[in-house]
Amino acid sequence: MIQTEQRRVALSTGVTLTVHQAGSGPDVLLLHGITGCGLYWSVQIAQLVAAGYRVTAPDGRGHGTSDRASDYATRTIAADAAALINALGLVKPTVIGHSMGGAQSLYLASAHPELVGRVILEDPAVWPRGGDDAYVAGVRDPWKQGLQAWVGMRHADLVAFKRNEAPHWSDEALDSWATAKLQNDPKVLAWLDEIKTPVWQWLNKVPVPITVLYCEPEKGGVIGADFAAELVNYMPNLTTVCIPAVGHEMHHDNPAAFIAAVTEAMN
Q1: Which residues span the domain enclosing 126?
Q2: Would you say residue 196 has pLDDT above 70?
Q3: CATH (domain of 12)
Q4: Global pTM value
């Protein structure tokens, strides 16, 4: 696992986050999903540092060793990201967000386009315009059941569970996945109810380049081809890329394909 500089950063939003940084060069900000943490990106941190970037990967509020909180709404965690960019003096970072972090990244770009250089979304947890309660529940409820099932499990049990489900994952990915699950505030799950709000209610058309990475429909991702096309029609500066043979956690399913797509989007 790559060695990172770890520090605590007090934000103007009222929380203190644990932040992991490594490398030098243009800034990249990594925003994890609902059961992740900063070092859940350890493989990608190493890849991006080797490619010449300075990488910042915070533990979001309620995750890792960052402060717990009472509010985990998308607008709130997006405000944390904006405050972190300002606190650390990041210069127009490329913001890469996975799942909940994808929604956070999109809200950040919509509310503060002046702070970011570009946004790359890894199967972001946002809903299409026609996504009714039944549609949302069909995607959301299996997540909730899975997350609740992991509460109370030991690290070794979590690793064994995930290895059985994803035998192609590296040992480093399995370890970071399990560690992140043990460091989550259970109250974060409230975010899964908040995201009934369709993206269209807060998404602004911004000049920031946005790339959406999505997976094939049978792989259980959030973003499908139809929704991806709808996003492109709404935001002309947005492009989509389907990465084959990966699921929702594509950066662990195929790190090489994921970083290739990210690198292409950044150039």
Answers
A1: 5-266
A2: no
A3: 3.40.50.1820
A4: 0.94
